[in-house]
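seq:
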Amino acid sequence: MLEKGKENMKKRRMYGKIFVTIILLLISAVGFNVYGGEKRVLIASQSSDFKNSIVKLLQEEMKDSGTQFTVEDVSALGKVKEAEWNAIVIVHAFKMGKINRRVQRYLDSVDDFSKVIVLTTYGNKDPVPDMYGIDSISAASKKEQIQTLTSDLKNRLQAILSSGS
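struct:
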């Protein structure tokens, strides 16, 4: 009888460890930064020091706004369900005369551009306004522009979130 009790205790510990591991894996798989809860904002960004600085600063400046941020790589745009978000911010690069193909595919599928903000880093003319008829932000990747660009993004994002999207 004592052996059976020890065996049951070992099983419970093992199941407990498995449960905790699954929970931790699920939490880490989500891959987001949460600063609130009312409004949901997706930031899809290509990774670079410049772009990462803007994304981080934007989240820091809005941490008390009651906004939940999810940050993903632009490669995740193919899975985005527009209706799940109050706003979508895309931070990408225009390289070798072309828009990022994942960004282009996503923008081609957008139903409501009123809740989409696009920041394009580029060397030449930004194609996003002409291709999609939307207002976007364009800039070269210069560190001295991080604060200004972040403020512009923040103002546009606050306007979208306050409009009730």
